[in-house]
Design a protein that fits this description.
4 helices; Udp-n-acetylmuramoylalanyl-d-glutamate--2,6- Diaminopimelate Ligase, Chain: A, domain 1; 10-stranded parallel sheet; flat; 12-stranded mixed sheet; single chain
């Protein structure tokens, strides 16, 4: 298990060498932990990547800081890097290295079909179900109470947290993390009207999750109706996201909490959808598209554009509309004054 405590202590010189940062100040300063800048104490290192936290630089009790070039600090030693956030993340990795959650082997309380193949270096925790025809790759870990259906392929070094449900036919690449309660491969929402009501359309596709994907807690990814639902390599999906059937998400996308993407929509590489964005089905978002929080996307967006609003529009256009909306009470008052001068009654103007 990963602990909130660690027994590692390193000098700043050793840390700087490992993360590729430039050291300013006492190279022999001992660091034994990390913390937010407003809470850090002696022996800990912190960082500033956002200017709103710069006010803490002169009052922090941390022993050292990670800062971008040009940000002044003369009180304590500094590690300089163009990307302080990434550098600090790498420092966290040093002090809190990954550890196995379950040892290699299969826990005696788990049910593994004789026709499944589990690599000898993989770890299967308690009360796990693994169906026929499924393969589990090297060093992967499946924690307590997870369900893995039939004909599932899980690659190497994957981490499947407790309560995850991976249904039949799903393919998962290497280095994938699935957080508690994620459901991968459930039926897509497909029905046809009939004289007897709604007729269920069988969902006979599958889900493909490529390498280095992380999927948050209680997120659902539906299987394709026909063919796959695809999550591209390097994509990170937050908690409580709904990915519908036959959606295709490109590489290195960021999908934030409570996003819903309707069926057969395609996202290019590097797309960012902020919290609570809703996307209709059968449209395309090009490479590098960014959509602001709580936006409703009802049409395709060209590559490289940023949109916002409900309905979503190009962000500058949306900003102009919002500016006008904010002035509506004032504009209405002015309009009523003009109508009064012209002798127009509310009934004449349709109010």
């Amino acid at each position: 298990m990963r602990s909130s405590k660690n027994s590692i202590s390193l000098t700043l010189a050793e840390i700087a060498r490992q993360v590729g940062a430039t050291l300013e100040g006492d190279a022999q300063t001992q660091i034994s932990g990390v913390a937010p800048i407003e809470r850090a104490v002696s022996g800990q290192i912190s960082f500033v990547a956002n200017s709103k936290y710069s006010r803490f630089i002169e009052i922090t009790t941390a022993s050292a800081l990670v800062l971008p070039p040009g940000v002044p600090c003369s009180r304590i030693p500094v590690l300089r890097h163009l990307n302080p956030y990434l550098t600090f993340a790498r420092i966290i990795d040093i002090f809190y290295p990954e550890q196995r959650r379950v040892p290699p082997g299969i826990h005696p309380s788990s049910l593994v079909d004789p026709d499944a193949s589990v690599d000898s270096t993989a770890g299967i925790g308690p009360i796990v179900h693994i169906g026929a025809g499924t393969t589990i790759g090297s060093e992967s870990q499946i924690l307590a109470s997870a369900y893995v259906g039939c004909d599932v392929h899980i690659g190497a070094r994957c981490l499947i947290y407790p309560g995850v449900q991976i249904l039949d036919g799903t393919t998962i690449g290497n280095n994938v993390i699935l957080h508690p309660g994620a459901v991968i491969g459930s039926d897509g929402f497909g029905f046809a009207r009939s004289d007897r009501g709604m007729h269920k359309i069988k969902q006979v596709g599958w889900v493909e999750i490529q390498d280095d994907v992380e999927i948050g807690a209680n997120t659902t990814v539906d299987r394709g109706a026909l063919g796959p639902t695809i999550i591209g390599a390097g994509t990170k999906i937050d908690n409580l996201v709904q990915i519908a059937h036959n959606v295709e998400i490109g590489r290195n996308c960021i999908i934030v909490s409570q996003v819903g993407i309707s069926g057969s929509t395609k996202l290019g590489d590097g797309v960012v959808l902020a919290g609570q964005v809703g996307v209709v089905g059968h449209i395309e978002l090009g490479n590098g598209v960014s959509v602001g929080a709580q936006s409703g996307v009802n049409k395709s967006i060209p590559s490289g554009e940023s949109w916002f609003g409900s309905p979503a529009r190009e962000i500058h256009e949306s900003a102009r509309i919002i500016a006008v909306q904010d002035r509506l009470p004032q504009l209405r008052k002015r309009l009523r004054q003009l109508e009064k001068k012209l002798g127009i009654t509310p009934e004449d103007s349709g109010e």
